[in-house]
Amino acid sequence: MPGFTLDEVRERTLKERDSWLTVSLVDPVAVRLVRLVANRTSITPNQLTVVALFLGLGAAVCFALGYRQFLALGAVLYILCFLVDCVDGKLARLTGSESLFGSWMDYVSDRFRVLVCAVALMGGQYVVSEEVAPDSNPVWFVWLALAVVFLDMLRYLNALQVYKVRREMRSHLAAALERARATLSMLEPEDDDTASATGGGGRTMSDGGEQAVLRHGIGVLEQILHSQNEREARNHRTAGKQPDLTLPKVDLHQEFRSRFPWYQRFWSALNARRIRTHLVGGIEFQLAVFVVAPLAVAVLGATSLIGWITAAAGVLLLAFEIAIIYKLWLSTRDFFRVVDGIDGALRFSGPSDGAEESRDSGSDSDSGSQTTLRQWREAEPHDGTRHRTAPDPG
């Protein structure tokens, strides 16, 4: 039976966008290892997760010893640990062996590895510093270990919450679209032209009335809610995670882009290379702390470099996390503008109790119709491609 080709492995395992470190350094090696493992062995993704965990524990032991040669060895082991950790998710996607338990194993082992390595690295440097200078009090290594663990947990907890909020917004907008379609179908004029014209048993409709409002609203929602294709849905899944119920993809970053017009060009340039705009995330932070910093100390011999490199990586990580939170806040503002517009149209287009009531409330209805139309007209494209409430994905 023929095995997987390299092109098949790339097609089925590479994410649409990923960390710049993963894209440039890890993926070229990982896809070849995945092909080798899938074609020549019966190793499972969960077994690779265990191997990655033990490599990480081996790196922690080297870090705990604290001396320069062990720091270099620990950094090498951590690189291997990270590579194997990337391979297990790709192997799961390639062979269709994703599982909820595998997702749990991968997540927990990653967090445990960071915790143990942070304590070992900073604890080892604490001991070595006291041996070299007995009068010193390198207590800042303790605080540094706590900071590393905190920042790692902040990054991943924030990612989970941002995903949850965006998913809820997509779900709500999808429901609003269905309500708008259902309401529009009920407002369609009946065959009885006389009844429609007189208002008896029905409602008079005009091109500038409720139907026009709802049709335009549906058009706006359909532009910002478009179904994800199979490749995108697969690439956005976490390794080993069972696919969720498919929801339309929604993009609500228009206000962010209007404030930062250069962002679209920046996003497009990185997207063409499969690189995400979140340039300093969990991957970059871990490799800076557990690879770059130990190697710098091993080569140059200055233990203070661990503190400076960790602090710089932590500041950059926090900066990008704050940017994500800021984008999310602006997205919620766009979201509520869209939802308020369609809900206003649906409230105005509710059932009438008859022509008399319609006449009594005619002036109010005209005012509500104009307000609703104005809301939707604000969402019309200004440049032929983008809506105020419907930007491209970021």
UniProtKB/TrEMBL annotation:
Keyword line: Membrane, Transferase, Transmembrane, Transmembrane helix
Q: Where is this region: Disordered?
A: 349-394
The reply to whether Transmembrane helix figures as a keyword in the UniProt entry is yes
Stored Pfam families: CDP-OH_P_transf
- Tree of life domain: Bacteria
Transmembrane helix in keyword set: yes
Q: Do you know which InterPro entries this protein is assigned to? A: CDP-OH_P_trans, CDP-OH_PTrfase_TM_dom, CDP_ALCOHOL_P_TRANSF_CS
For this UniProt entry, which segments traverse the membrane?
50-67, 73-91, 140-157, 279-300, 306-329
Bias kind Basic and acidic residues: ranges: 375-394
Family, as annotated: Belongs to the CDP-alcohol phosphatidyltransferase class-I family.
Task: Indicate what this protein is called per its UniProt record.
Answer: CDP-alcohol phosphatidyltransferase family protein
Lineage of source species = Bacteria, Bacillati, Actinomycetota, Actinomycetes, Streptosporangiales
